[in-house]
Amino acid sequence: MKKHPTFEELYQKRVDEKTPPSPIVMNCIKAFLVGGAICTVGQGVGQFARDVLEYSRESTAAFTAIVMVFLGAFFTGLGLYDNLARFGGAGAFVPITGFSNSIVSPAMEFKREGYVLGIGAKMFSIAGAVLVYGIGTSVLYGLILFLFGK
Amino acid sequence: MAEKRVGSQTVVFGSPPVIIAAAAVVGPKEGEGPLAEYMDIVLEDDLLGEKSFEKAEMQIFLQAARKALSKADITPRDVDYLLGGDLLNQLITANFAARDLGIPFFGLYGACSTITESLSLAAMLIDGGYAERILCVAASHFSTAERQYRYPLEQGTQRPPSSQWTVTGAGAVLLGRGGAGPRITMATTGKVVDYGIKDANNMGAAMAPAAADTFQAHFIDTGRNPGDYDRIVTGDLATYGRELTIELMEKYGYHIGDRYIDCGCEIFDREKQDVHAGGSGCGCAATVLSGYLMSLLQSRRAGRLLVAATGALLSTTSSMQGESIPGIAHAIAIEPEG
């Protein structure tokens, strides 16, 4: 026998019909443009390190990451990065500048609660999840490579 | 049965308490919205020169309270009770403001329904003979609500179209026994209603069933119809919650679409102000009621109003634990003098 939908299910269905979904295609295009632009800046910084400063491959990667993290923090401090992210979504969140933003923004927000329990404790409230699962995944990947690699 | 009760959820006041004065204070963004001209104070700086947004919210609460008192030309000593609340944990805005005002105080948490919750209780206290004058205040601030319920201000996030923008502002309504002004004739106390919506970015949908439930109860209890009111008003259901409320009311057999406005839809210009579905927060219904609706009543551009501020009774803990969002709506009937 077919189960009748509950009142809650019917309402949820109507809500889903009524509420417009996030404009996924448009958001993807914006994310592509913003993310692409950030990565292009990163590429430029990398080229500069390699060609002008004549850094090694490893130093170039480190230099680029440092500059991009600084830029992310700097524009967060100026109050501009959230506007970029509101437009660019994942395009602003996924690059390393977004990681920087996720650490600097709670640090700014919770400064009023003091340096230890405010900034210190809250700074990684969002980035913490990225770190836990990022490092966790890299450990797992390292294990797989160690056991089955070559 | 108590002689002033009708039906299961409504009270009818014997000598309806009068709205002696009302004041609305809003932030700069609300000041760019379509209702700016009706607000008493539009702030230029939403921090008000304070060290934190929490302190700023308390100042906004105080400003609205003091403005309402000064309009009525009385001091805090002339007021018997202060009733009100806000959205912050442990009601710090209202509690700290009450410390400064020195009026006997009941702190109320009804989420964004606080202003009509306060007015319902205040009207009962006055009509019951327990008070001569009561001040009701509700406040919210975008920046304090964001940090408590969502993300740090500078955190880069993208909002879905159904999300709402917390109003920075406070509304204060001074009720008194007798005198000139619009009066609160009835109050229908809402039940907590939950249709299982879990999306904290769609609070209008979570609250719409509570609004419809309270309106239906009001019409059944009083024998009135939507046609008996010039405007039927909800607090902060915003665009989609408003449409859902109209649909639910049609299902209950009441047609309200032609006279129904939502404060969350009115306070901002959705096209220009990047607020997605509309406004929300204790300050949304409180400022629209004390600013815009009071002005409509005083200039006689509107007659009888049925106003239900709506609250989404979630917390960050309950959302993170995957609980659904219960809603509540408290309705008051306001009628012009005479």
Please describe the biggest sheet of chain B, giving its number of strands, its sense, and whether it closes into a barrel. 7 strands, mixed
What would the average pLDDT of chain A be, to the nearest integer?
A: 93
CATH class of the largest domain in chain B: Alpha Beta
Domain unit count of chain B: 2
| Stretches with pLDDT under 50, minimum 5 residues of chain A | none
The radius of gyration of chain A is 21 Å
Q: Pairing-aware structural class of the strands and helices of chain B?
A: alpha/beta
Quote the beta fraction of chain B. Answer: 15-25%
Tell me what portion of residues of chain A adopts beta-strand conformation.
under 5%
- The class by helix and strand makeup of chain A works out as mainly alpha
What is the H-and-E element order of chain B? EEEHEHEHEHEHEEEHEHEHHEHEHE
Number of contiguous helices of chain B: 11
Give the overall silhouette of chain B.
globular
CATH architecture of the largest domain in chain B: 3-Layer(aba) Sandwich
* Coarse shape of chain A: extended
**How much helix is in the residues of chain B?**
25-40%
Q: Encode the helix/strand succession of chain A as letters.
A: HHHHHHHH
Query: What is the radius of gyration of chain B?
Result: 18 Å
Detail the poorly predicted runs of chain B.
none
Q: Provide the spatial order of strands within the biggest beta sheet of chain B.
A: 1-2-10-15-14-11-12
CATH third-tier fold name of the largest domain in chain B: Peroxisomal Thiolase, Chain A, domain 1
What can you tell me about this protein's structure?
The complex is a heterodimer of chains A (150) and B (338). Chain A is mostly helical and 150 residues long. Chain A has one domain (24-148). In chain A, 79% of the residues lie in helices and 0% in strands. In chain A, helix 6 (96-109) packs antiparallel against helix 7 (115-122). Chain B is an alpha/beta fold and 338 residues long. Chain B has 2 domains: 5-176, 3-Layer(aba) Sandwich (Peroxisomal Thiolase, Chain A, domain 1), CATH 3.40.47; 183-335, Stage V sporulation protein AD (Peroxisomal Thiolase, Chain A, domain 1). Chain B has helices at residues 28-31, 53-71, 92-101, 114-127, 142-149, 203-222, 238-251, 263-266, 270-273, 282-298, 316-320, and strands at residues 5-6, 10-12, 18-26, 41-42, 81-85, 105-107, 133-140, 165-166, 169-176, 183-188, 231-234, 260-262, 279-280, 305-312, 327-335. In chain B, the strands form 3 sheets. Chain B has a 7-stranded mixed β-sheet, with helices on both faces. In chain B, helix 2 (53-71) packs across helix 3 and helix 6 (203-222) packs parallel to helix 7 (238-251). The model of chain B has no long low-confidence stretch (mean pLDDT 96). Chains A and B meet through helix 1, helix 4, helix 5 and helix 6 of A and helix 7 of B.
